[in-house]
Design brief:
By secondary structure, the chain is an alpha/beta fold. The protein folds into two domains: 190 residues, no CATH class; 162 residues, Rossmann fold, CATH 3.40.50.720. The chain contains 13 helices and 17 strands. It has a six-stranded mixed beta sheet with strand order 5-4-1-3-2-13. A six-stranded parallel beta sheet has the order 8-7-6-9-10-11. Helix 6 crosses helix 7, helix 6 packs across helix 11 and helix 6 packs across helix 12. The protein is globular.
Length: 358
């Protein structure tokens, strides 16, 4: 039996009530103060993972009790100490590898310092997140009747570890590419790399709203705490893959724009009769790709720091995608704002977009 652990944290105060229901009656400031004082702990035992290779694994969700807002606002040293503490809980439970979820993979140097302070390897899960985001985006675009070679792709958060590799891989297939981020210098460096490796000349900008208004396809993967893409920002018929957690795309888009398709990036089916024993808002047997990468590495016996730091590679994205298929992990259909999205619903979105275009 292979063993792994995955560090999670509440995205906001409302998530705390999933584990401690009484907190929904408490003021946010009181809950946040309590979280800061609370030690990291094992939130649930994960059982029933069985791969197509007849390999089995068990694991644990380890809670690092800080919200996304706290992860960004508290001193970095304080946050890293809390994450390392969570990693040590994983060590004591016997995990052979630990994955970093949500903002625990963003703080500081994206896991490098955490790995240096633990006796087990660490992965952010970002390589498999890239693989599934790209697969989902391509499938969604196809259902919407879009040909990638005719499309203008906008990557929001392009200088982040996930955004960079998504940009490089997708640059091979699209007609136009715009890179969006806060640091124009880093955007220009990425654009030069893409030009050298693929021959595609990219545009760069820090103006999110202006960029997405001209997009056929958007992949958004920032580390923003609040939503940054609103209904009025998107053109009719746009396909948006939101990989960020918390979300970059406002829920108002789904409510007000019936001519725009928004899908969640990085949601996969886990092989076996898996029991997570924790409600994180997904249907039974499905998980985020970053979680799945940790499981895949354990099943493969690859106890190594796989996706670490901010420099992901296309080679590792391809490799983890192949290992996922080998063990029976696969894209969990289409999901939008925490609910399944049928092909028929997407067809209705396509029809509405076509009506508005005519």
């Amino acid at each position: 039996m292979e063993r792994f652990a995955f560090i999670i944290h509440p995205l906001d105060v409302s998530d705390v009530a999933r584990k401690f229901s009484f907190t929904k009656y408490m003021p946010n400031t009181v809950v946040e103060k309590a979280l800061r004082l609370m030690p990291s702990f094992a939130a649930s035992h994960i059982t029933g993972i069985k791969s197509l290779q007849n390999k089995e694994a068990e694991g644990w969700f380890i809670s690092c009790p800080l919200t996304a807002k706290q992860m960004l606002s508290l001193p970095q040293k304080t946050v890293l100490k809390k994450i390392i503490q969570a990693g040590r809980v994983a060590e004591k439970l016997g995990a052979g590898i630990v994955g970093l979820g949500a903002f625990t993979s963003v703080v500081g140097d994206a896991g490098i310092t955490v790995a240096k302070n633990l006796n087990i390897p660490v992965t952010t899960g970002n390589s498999y997140t890239v693989a599934t985001a790209i697969e989902g985006t391509k499938k969604a675009a196809n259902v919407m009747g879009k040909k990638l070679s005719d499309c203008h792709l906008v990557v929001v958060g392009a200088t982040g570890s996930i955004g960079q590799v998504c940009s490089i891989i997708m640059a091979r297939d699209v007609r136009k590419l715009t890179l969006v981020g806060r640091d124009v210098g880093r955007l220009n460096s990425l654009a030069s790399k893409i030009l050298y490796e693929t021959g595609l000349a990219c545009k760069v900008t820090s103006d999110i709203k202006k960029a997405v208004r001209r997009a056929d396809i958007v992949i958004t993967v920032t580390s923003c705490v609040d939503t940054i893409i609103q209904p009025e920002d998107l053109p009719s018929g746009a396909v948006v893959c939101d990989v960020a957690r918390p979300r970059d795309v406002s829920k108002r888009v789904a409510e007000e724009r019936k001519d725009v398709l928004v899908i969640e990036g990085g949601v996969v089916e886990v092989p076996g009769n898996v029991e997570f024993n924790l409600d994180f808002g997904f249907p039974r047997g499905t998980a985020y790709a970053c979680m799945a990468e940790t499981m895949i590495l354990a099943l493969e016996g690859r106890y190594e720091s796989y996706s670490l730091g901010r420099n992901l590679t296309v080679k590792k994205v391809d490799e983890i995608n192949a290992l996922a298929k080998k063990h029976g992990f696969k894209l969990a259909g289409f999901r939008s704002f925490e609910r399944a999205l049928s092909i028929e619903e997407i067809q209705r979105i396509k029809l509405m977009a076509n009506k508005r275009a005519s």
